[in-house]
Amino acid sequence: MSGAAEGGVRALLRVEGACVLFAACWLYAQSGYGWGVFALCFLAPDLAFLGYLAGPRVGACCYNATHAHVGAIACFVAGRLLAQPALLVAGLIWIAHVGFDRALGYGLKYASGFGDTHLGRIGRAARRAP
Asked: Which residues are listed as membrane-spanning (predicted)?
């Protein structure tokens, strides 16, 4: 699959994801919200997997919409600008989730299938690759 990061670039993107995860968790710790809220909401972006029930193109679109930093950062900034703590911490949890996924090597999806990501192939697609 072309378009996937390889080698040192892939490793750097995964380290960057870990840094984003830790920064978001550090900021969340300052928020005063409990870690139970964090744990409860952390996997919420993965509900986008349901888009794959409509096929790989729709699934990739849904997944990418909830796993790109732009929406998560917009949520965080809106919470800050509007002085809405719940929106701010939702953004932090969302940012942490995206960072976690990137650190594990789960990248944005291509319409060719769930296993084809910008960070390389994952799952069965990775095992089939030469």
From this structure: 12-29, 35-55, 67-96
Residue 68 has phi, psi (to 5 degrees) of -100, 145
pTM across the whole model: 0.89
Beta strands across the sheet bearing 109-110: 109-110, 113-117, 120-121
Please, which residues have CB within 8 angstroms of residue 72's CB and are 6 or more apart in sequence? Answer: 91, 94, 95, 97, 98
Cα(74)–Cα(82) distance, rounded to whole angstroms? 12
Using the predicted structure, report yes or no on whether residue 118 has a pLDDT greater than 90.
no
Is residue 90 within 8 Å of residue 33, measured between CB atoms? no
pLDDT for 24-51, tens place per residue?
A: 999 999 999 999 999 999 999 999 999 9
**Residues near 10 by Cβ (< 8 Å), separated by ≥ 6?**
4, 105, 119, 120
CA–CA dist 25, 30 (Å, integer): 9
- Give the list of residues 6+ apart from residue 63 with CB closer than 8 angstroms, or none: 48, 49, 51, 52, 108, 109, 114
Cα(42)–Cα(96) distance, integer angstroms? 8
